[in-house]
Amino acid sequence: MYAMTGHLSAQPGKRSELASILLRASALVANMPGCHAYIILEDVKDENIVSVFEMWASKDAHDASLRDERVRALIAEAMPLLAGAPSGSELKVLGGHGVNM
User: What percent of the chain has pLDDT over 70?
Assistant: First the structure.
């Protein structure tokens, strides 16, 4: 299993708009092969930060989602709202509540 986190800093006043795009992306990837979770989170201390937690059957499944033209369109829509480059981490899933390995 493959997981990743992404932290995106929106331009001031644009976090809700960015979160809306990411929630649309969540609905889109929910039906893609290998997607186990795509969760959108707002930082409670920084009013500009939106985070994403993704869990996939494999890195290949995740990478395939990025080649989907609908996903690419949402990425293009979100890019102008960003205040800088996203940060995050690639993760190896070990297990836990809600994880069926």
Answer: 100
